[in-house]
Amino acid sequence: MFHPPFCPRFGCPSAERDLAFRYRRSGSYHRKCDGRWIQRFRCLVCHRGFSTQTYRANYRYRKPFLHHALVHALCSKVTRRQAARLFGVNKKTVERRFVRM
């Protein structure tokens, strides 16, 4: 089971304290892109919500599966324009992912 290490929200007072991070599970939601259920949490200090997805490298991606496919394609000397054609995305999407890698 996942235990969030800290509150991901900027300015949360729980980051300044030396006490253990306090949170509560707060339901879950169904992710559209791959059908997985994602656990939600609520910080008991700032009362803001977050999820397990907040801590992942592919946070806010609509197509998280694309990251590994792009890494493999670009390491195989596929051009960015060709990678965009292969995966059916805009070439600017490939550019943004390439910069973020």
Secondary structure blueprint with pairings:
Elements: E1 23-30, E2 37-43, E3 49-51, H1 66-75, H2 80-87, H3 91-100
Antiparallel strand pairs: 1-2, 2-3
Helix pairs in contact: 2-3
Explain what this protein looks like in three dimensions.
This protein is of the alpha+beta class and 101 residues long. It has two domains: 43 residues, no CATH class; 35 residues. The protein is 28% helix and 18% strand. It contains three helices and three strands; from the N terminus they run E-E-E-H-H-H. It has a three-stranded antiparallel β-sheet with strand order 1-2-3, with no helix packed on it. A hairpin with a 6-residue loop joins strand 1 and strand 2. Helix 2 crosses helix 3. It is elongated. The relative contact order is 0.14.
Q: Could you say how many structural domains there are in total?
A: 2
Largest sheet: 3 strands, antiparallel
Taking all Cα atoms into account, the compactness measure Rg is: 18 Å
- Could you list the spans in which at least 5 consecutive residues all have pLDDT below 50? none
Helix- and strand-based class?
alpha+beta
- Provide the residue-averaged pLDDT: 86
Give the amount of beta strand, in percent.
15-25%
- Helix tally equals 3
Strand order across the biggest sheet?
Answer: 1-2-3
What share of residues is helical?
25-40%
Global morphology: elongated
State the end-to-end distance.
28 Å
Say how many strands there are: 3
Order of helices and strands: EEEHHH
